[in-house]
């Protein structure tokens, strides 16, 4: 949930008034505060005008904007020193300073370091960091580490090499030795390095394949005519614009045709011949910079622009996507957190569950309809006046909560509430308006300041608020203490961090001097209030629900017309442009205006202002993109204070490179639109690249009203995302999966698969946690020799073995999907029929997909460990084991299983099982001390060409009654193995021979 202003644009959203918990354009009434007869102060609604920022013109839209490449002189290198480990040099301005968007830095330090054979870095920083002429921020390595260095690395042994030149001005080029191809080339461009504007340019091959540069909602392969803004924004999921997090990293994949002499010729993926085989090389680039940034994609390459900081690039040579992604995490940003087993169950939430009783009713309904439910969530409804760590004692009293949570936990289920990033600051003139969390934080002096040293006071859900200062060494302890105190009252099982961009509903420190008028209502109508009634439905609703759609449309346009006539309009817009002042930074309105998606492009709009000041003197301008990252760090470690032995479970909205070490991420305030279900797949795949595999979106959509068909399809699709949650907005129609009979059936069908393969999910996550591998995977990553897969993002893989091909459009009864690898002997099996798919290589195959059916396929060569579905993961973990063996074309298969207690931070006992099939024999080799007491019940083998004469487990014949063979489907089913494995499925090594 959020607070947003612009929900969607264009055809995606009609005139329906769907807004999230951010700002809408509606404003509430307001009145001056005055004492009542009882001596208490009345409060008011902060006016919407308080959020209005300056109207700026983003440079890409500004007709007067100067192209720095055309007017800046660039640099010349001198004092060059080369060694086996790299190069250092001094860069000096090559001409008259251009000072186009700041003050040019006249001297820079340039360095190349070969960090490892598959990794190198390029750094460019001001020479005089202590000069009074510059106010410079260098990113703290304790907050965002630099890539580690292998002291044995050298230029000679590296996969990459760098060349540089001074003609016509300084440039550098990174080349892959294996292909001779330049993977990063600043030739024919100039380096621009000013105190508020840094720009570098690299050329790229025609029709390049780039992925990443987040966070954005868009297709997986980036367009080559788009400006990507990186600035954390509290906004409700606009397509292509900047949203909640910042991940300045990209993957570049290139395909080559190799001749007999080993020469590599670059091939455009969209023009590669289907009949040929190719090789691919992938590399990654990480720009270690937390400032507001823009990456301008164009057909010839990209321009990377930043509002400050340094150039600190790390190159990862791969050469595979897996190699790049693992290297990026292992060496630089850190490995993703291992999640508790329960987190892979189903989660239910909504904004609008009004009390503990309603939560209990929801849980009871899931049980009634026999739909698995693992965790019930609370949005801001539970809070007293929207205050963190403070329950509303009328609706969510602690005493009733204790009873509810005891019952919930005894059923094997869990509870997770939302916590916002802002802290309410009370009215000092109202003695009854006390708030202990603020009092303790104020005493510890842990809140952000104004430049004059007073507390920075914005406005969020509670009214006027202050914001934790994560640069203060005491703030983490303050935050942990509040969570520990609250946990003693409410036995939470994890934390959902929201509004951590960090958001504020007014521009500037609007609460300073105004605390006597502390608002009780945000500056906009909440969903369902007059002027913001939710009428919208997904596309296609008008075809199946004509009368209801017509009524909703009429009411929506009436509401929109009322809002238009009731507000004031301006006949002209006044834009603010600023020009550089030598040696001075304009913090709030920098001369270069990034294409920020808030109104007016103002960095202060709907956020804490850039001039908010941290305890070390650093201003928010330099670290805005890190607030979410740091609160997730603090929350993770706070939960360790609650229970140091248990893995913390944190889901956060604003993230940065490395946030996956502590938290998962959900896709934010999406809408109940088919487009958002469509884009959820590339969103998830992008976060795989960013090292945050625990990702999901709000199934059925958050904003607006969903409908039966969309929710049916979405509940099935999200069942194959790591984080699986249904969540919707205040006052929208209910969308729990038991609301519609068809959605109930579809959900149970997909959940049956999900809960069966939970051990596979868990194993994938352990591998991601230990090696940096991905969980959700693009087809191109698993099949790197096929250029036709480069842009495929409408289907995906879970690990190497499960492929999902969902329906992503309304009123469809089939879907077209590709089955990769067929020309190389790959075999795919239909999950439901267990038969091999009849498809042709390199073409889309039409797959039947009536409503309620999601096509799922198993890759030949896989062994998938499974248990029986149940209503909770605890129950599922207590069931017998089964193995699904999908034979490859050569009759072989492999698989893995990892087990532990599912929650310990450092489990004492673990188990690793390796499965291997060769010559009609399945072997299991176990290593570790975890005692898995559940027996093995069945083994199902797909692709068995002939009926076996006998089946034996460790030489002991399996009774004929337990062996079945279907000659038509070629499926061998071996059951009744419990007696032969009564000590546990993996208590000893075994082999099943057929």
Automatic annotation (TrEMBL):
Transmembrane segments: none
Reactions listed under catalytic activity: Hydrolysis of terminal, non-reducing (1->4)-linked alpha-D-glucose residues with release of alpha-D-glucose
GO molecular function terms noted in the UniProt entry: alpha-1,4-glucosidase activity; carbohydrate binding
Alphabetic keyword roster: Glycoprotein, Glycosidase, Hydrolase, Signal
Stretch forming the signal peptide: 1-22
Top-level EC class: hydrolase
Family to which the UniProt record says this protein belongs: Belongs to the glycosyl hydrolase 31 family.
Amino-acid biosynthesis keyword on record: no
Domain Glycoside hydrolase family 31 N-terminal: residue ranges: 156-254
Protein name (record): alpha-glucosidase
InterPro entries hit by this protein: Gal_mutarotase_sf_dom, GH, Glyco_hydro_31_AS, Glyco_hydro_31_C, Glyco_hydro_31_CS, Glyco_hydro_31_N_dom, Glyco_hydro_31_TIM, Glyco_hydro_b
GO biological process, one term: carbohydrate metabolic process
Domain Glycosyl hydrolase family 31 C-terminal: 772-864
Enzyme Commission identifier(s): 3.2.1.20
CDD domains: GH31_MGAM_SI_GAA, GH31_N
All copies of domain Glycoside hydrolase family 31 TIM barrel, residue ranges: 336-764
Gene3D superfamilies, per database record: Glycosidases, glycosyl hydrolase (family 31), Golgi alpha-mannosidase II
Sequence segments annotated as region (Disordered): 561-580
């Amino acid at each position: 949930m959020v607070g947003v202003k612009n929900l969607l644009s264009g055809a995606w959203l009609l005139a329906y008034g769907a807004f999230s918990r951010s700002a809408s354009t509606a404003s509430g009434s307001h009145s001056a505060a005055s004492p009542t007869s009882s001596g208490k102060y009345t409060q008011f609604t902060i006016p919407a005008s308080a959020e209005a920022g300056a109207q700026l013109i983003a440079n890409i839209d500004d007709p007067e904007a100067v192209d720095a490449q055309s007017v800046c002189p660039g640099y010349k290198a001198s004092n060059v020193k080369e060694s086996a480990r790299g190069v250092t040099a001094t860069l000096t301005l090559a001409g008259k300073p251009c000072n186009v968007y700041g003050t040019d830095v006249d001297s820079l330090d340039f360095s190349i370091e070969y960090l490892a054979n598959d990794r190198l870095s390029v750094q460019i920083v001001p020479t005089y960091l202590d000069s009074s002429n510059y106010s410079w921020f260098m990113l703290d390595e304790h907050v965002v580490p630099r890539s580690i260095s292998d002291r044995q690395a050298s230029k000679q042994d590296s996969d990459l090499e760098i060349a540089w030149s001074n003609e016509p001005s300084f440039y550098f080029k990174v080349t892959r030795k294996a292909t001779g191809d330049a993977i990063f080339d600043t030739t024919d461009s100039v380096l621009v390095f000013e105190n508020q504007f840094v720009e570098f340019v690299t050329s790229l091959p025609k029709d390049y394949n780039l992925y990443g540069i987040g966070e954005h909602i868009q297709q997986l392969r980036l367009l080559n005519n788009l400006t990507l803004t990186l600035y954390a924004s509290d906004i409700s999921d606009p397509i292509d614009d900047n949203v909640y997090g910042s991940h300045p990293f990209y993957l570049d994949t290139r395909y080559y045709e190799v001749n007999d002499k080993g020469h590599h010729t670059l091939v455009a993926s969209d023009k590669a011949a289907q009949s040929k085989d190719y090789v691919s090389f992938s590399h990654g680039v990480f720009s270690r910079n937390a400032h507001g940034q823009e990456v301008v994609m164009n057909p010839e390459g990209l321009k990377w622009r930043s509002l400050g900081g340094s150039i600190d690039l790390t190159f990862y040579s791969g050469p595979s996507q897996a190699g790049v992604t693992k290297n990026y995490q292992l060496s630089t940003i850190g490995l993703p957190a291992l999640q508790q087993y329960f987190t892979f169950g189903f989660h239910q939430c909504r904004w609008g569950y009004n009390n503990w009783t309603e939560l209990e009713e929801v849980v009871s309904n899931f049980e009634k309809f026999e739909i698995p439910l693992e965790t019930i969530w609370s949005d801001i409804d539970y809070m007293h006046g929207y205050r963190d760590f403070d329950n509303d004692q009328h609706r969510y009293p602690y005493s009733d909560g204790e009873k509810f949570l005891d019952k919930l936990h005894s059923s094997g289920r869990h509870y997770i509430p939302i916590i916002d990033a802002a802290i309410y600051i009370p009215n000092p003139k109202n003695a009854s308006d006390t708030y202990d969390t603020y009092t303790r934080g104020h005493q510890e002096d842990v809140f952000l300041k104004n430049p004059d040293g007073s507390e920075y006071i914005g406005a969020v859900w509670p009214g006027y608020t202050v914001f934790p200062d994560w640069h203060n060494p005491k703030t983490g302890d303050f935050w942990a203490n509040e969570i520990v105190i609250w946990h003693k009252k409410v036995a939470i099982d994890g934390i959902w961090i929201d509004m951590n961009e960090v958001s504020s509903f007014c521009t500037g420190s609007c609460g300073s001097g105004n605390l006597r008028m502390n608002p009780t209502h945000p500056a906009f109508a909440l969903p369902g209030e007059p002027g913001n009634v939710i009428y919208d439905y997904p596309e296609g609703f008008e075809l199946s629900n004509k009368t209801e759609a017509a009524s909703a449309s009429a009411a929506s346009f009436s509401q929109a017309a009322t809002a238009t006539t009731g507000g004031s309009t301006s006949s002209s817009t006044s834009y603010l442009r600023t020009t550089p002042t030598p040696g001075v930074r304009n913090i709030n309105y920098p001369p270069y205006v990034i294409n920020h998606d808030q109104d007016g492009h103002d960095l202060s709009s709907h956020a804490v202002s850039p001039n908010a000041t941290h305890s070390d003197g650093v201003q928010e301008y330099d670290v805005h993109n890190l607030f979410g990252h740091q609160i997730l760090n603090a929350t993770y470690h706070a939960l360790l204070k609650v229970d140091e032995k248990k893995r913390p479970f944190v889901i956060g909205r604003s993230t940065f490179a490395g946030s996956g070490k502590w938290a998962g991420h959900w896709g934010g305030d999406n809408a109940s639109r088919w487009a958002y279900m469509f884009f959820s797949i590339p969103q998830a795949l992008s976060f795989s690249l960013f090292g945050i595999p625990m990702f999901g979106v709000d199934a059925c959509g958050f904003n607006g009203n969903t409908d039966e068909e969309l929710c049916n399809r979405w509940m099935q699709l999200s069942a194959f995302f790591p984080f699986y949650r249904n969540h919707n907005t205040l006052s929208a129609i209910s969308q729990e999966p038991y609301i519609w009979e068809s959605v109930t059936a579809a959900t149970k069908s997909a959940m049956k698969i999900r809960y069966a393969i939970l051990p596979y999910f868990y194993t994938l996550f352990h591998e991601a946690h230990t090696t940096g591998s991905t969980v959700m995977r693009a087809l191109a990553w698993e099949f790197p020799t096929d250029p036709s897969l480069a842009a495929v993002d409408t289907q995906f893989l879970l690990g190497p073995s499960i492929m999902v091909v969902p329906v992503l459009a309304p009123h469809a009864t089939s879907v077209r999907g590709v089955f990769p690898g067929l020309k190389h002997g790959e075999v795919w099996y239909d999950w439901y029929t267990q038969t091999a798919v009849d498809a042709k290589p390199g073409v889309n195959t039409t797959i039947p997909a009536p409503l309620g059916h999601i096509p799922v396929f198993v890759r030949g060569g896989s062994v998938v460990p499974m248990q029986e579905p149940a209503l909770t993961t605890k129950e599922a973990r207590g069931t017998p084991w089964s193995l699904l063996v999908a034979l490859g074309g050569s009759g072989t298969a492999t698989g893995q299983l990892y087990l532990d207690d599912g929650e310990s931070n450092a489990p004492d006992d673990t188990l690793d099982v390796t499965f291997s099939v060769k010559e009609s024999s399945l072997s299991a080799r176990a290593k570790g001390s975890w005692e898995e007491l559940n027996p093995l019940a069945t083994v199902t083998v797909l692709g068995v060409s002939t009926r076996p004469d006998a089946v034996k487990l460790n030489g002991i014949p399996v009774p004929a009654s337990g062996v079945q063979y279907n000659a038509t489907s070629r499926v061998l089913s071996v059951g009744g193995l419990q007696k032969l494995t009564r000590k546990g499925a993996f208590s000893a090594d075994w082999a099943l021979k057929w």
